[in-house]
Amino acid sequence: MGGGIAGLAAAFALAERAGALGELLHCTVLEGQPAFGGKIVTHHIHGLVVEGGPDSFLTTKPAALALCDKLELTPQLINTGQGNGSALTYSKGRLREFPQGLIAMAPTHLGSLFRSGVMSWAGIARMAVEWWVPARPATGEEETLAAFFSRRLGAEAFHRLIEPFVAGIYAGDANELSAAATFPQFLEWEHAHGGLMKGALATRRARAAHRHGSASRTLFTSLRGGLGDFITRLVEKLSEAGVSLRCGANVLAVSMGGRHGGPYRLELAGGEELEAEAVVLATPAYVSAELLRAVDRESATLLDRIPYASTITMSMAYADPEIAGRLRGHGFVVPRIENRGLIAATWSSMKWAGRAPAGQSLIRCYLGGRGREHLLEMDDDELTNHARRELDMMAGIRGRPFHVEVYRWPRAMPQYVRGHRDRVRRIRRGVARHPGLYLTGAAYEGLGIPDCIRDAENTAHALSDFLWSSTFDRRPVAIEDAE
Ligand SMILES: Cc1cc2nc3c(=O)[nH]c(=O)nc-3n(C[C@H](O)[C@H](O)[C@H](O)COP(=O)(O)OP(=O)(O)OC[C@H]3O[C@@H](n4cnc5c(N)ncnc54)[C@H](O)[C@@H]3O)c2cc1C
């Protein structure tokens, strides 16, 4: 249940597997809201393409691109567009540019970093010695993102360069987030290569050796008509495959022992009851906790311990041609130490072709996040004034938008705080004691769209093995024994 990208991708992978095995599938996707998509919401209005939730996904993780291919959406994929695409950051009173490749830890970018004025000489010098900072011995103690990056690159580089990107992805506080759970590849670089710069260099060399000159994609991609097309196409394909899709079907509880022989009983709002041989919970962790409490109290308690951050996106459309002249790059990020209300602003109509009609500009502000959740209590007018003041102060944008859309996202972003990986292992172990019961979604192995799709597909494969493998032992799985 749960008709966000994870629930729909799991159903799609299951239907695909059923088709390949020639098995009959009776599958229902239950979505509590009136529409499918969860965090993915695209609104078309006045020729604008407004993204309420995510606006793009990473191309370095293949699952989302592969699913686009299966859904015949590849021709609709668009690269980041117009402008020079440079990354801007609000730092010490104004917007400053810093090199795109910096986050890839290329030491060659340190000179342009100095010219940008984002960091002091001393901070850049400290960053440069990362090459010689020894790898931390494996102590078993988990580091926060703040501790990891400050240790390797110095505190200034962490605050000025790393933190704003962490906030952009997780809307989180880097002093709480686990480095191992959020950016495992950086820890891997430290362990395998001795550091971030060395790891980046080795990775670039390996990629160069395997490049075959295929059509190149930018780091992030989106769909021409907005990410909502992903959901529309998934729903179409699932219907064609005979999967039953129900919106407005809010599930209140899951329990064991259906009256008609099904192992699981689902209680829906309105009093309806359904029975199922297997259940996939693709709902946020705190919802899954409530649903599961009767089946597995211990896992429910652990699920409750996954904290969430709340965010807001505000899209503002301007007809004023003067605005377009002020938009450099694709937007900017704001480090937390600047103590401002914005996490980031994106010039959506510069970044993505077709987001606004010619002569108009669409700007998207990202606000809230861990520690700044009070902003969700503002009404739309207060928020609009707040965002306009911030844009004026930081980027000199003074026009009046002719269209504003506000999306509040309470408890939307799972926070992979220290202990997350261990918690998820224990939750999975607990749930595995109930054959046919699965969890998937943003709360566990990555919250980006490609991570959600990959985890959903893994879940569907485990479920199809459970349902159709003749050799599968349906007794409760004792994972501890297998480890
Ligand atoms: C503002 C914002 C911006 C983001 N930007 C990006 C980005 O640019 N790129 C990127 O890769 N990721 C981004 N993300 C993250 C990504 O969008 C999400 O992590 C991902 O879409 C979550 O998918 P999901 O299916 O796990 O969960 P959801 O989308 O939350 O889906 C869960 C579904 O379960 C339903 N549900 C809940 N309770 C019940 C119930 N009791 N019964 C039935 N149904 C129920 C919900 O209504 C919902 O539809 C962003 C997230 C947000 C909030």
Keywords, please?
483 residues, protoporphyrinogen ix oxidase, domain 3, alpha+beta, Polyamine Oxidase, Chain A, domain 2, binds flavin-adenine dinucleotide, seven-stranded mixed beta sheet, FAD/NAD(P)-binding domain, disordered C terminus, three-stranded antiparallel beta sheet
Verbal overview:
A hairpin with a 2-residue loop joins β2 (42-45) and β3 (48-51). The chain has helices at 5-21, 63-70, 110-116, 121-128, 145-153, 155-170, 179-182, 184-193, 196-210, 228-240, 285-292, 297-304, 321-326, 348-351, 380-395, 420-431, 449-468, 479-482; strands at 28-30, 42-45, 48-51, 57-58, 77-79, 87-91, 94-98, 220-223, 244-246, 251-256, 264-268, 273-276, 279-281, 308-318, 331-333, 342-347, 361-368, 403-414, 437-439. It has three domains: 5-38 and 242-306 and 418-482, FAD/NAD(P)-binding domain (3-Layer(bba) Sandwich), CATH 3.50.50.60; 101-210, protoporphyrinogen ix oxidase, domain 3 (Orthogonal Bundle); 308-414, Polyamine Oxidase, Chain A, domain 2 (Alpha-Beta Complex). The chain is an alpha+beta fold and 483 residues long. The chain contains 18 helices and 19 strands. The model is unreliable at 475-483 (pLDDT under 50). It binds flavin-adenine dinucleotide (FAD). The site of flavin-adenine dinucleotide has 36 residues, from α1, β14, β18 and α17.
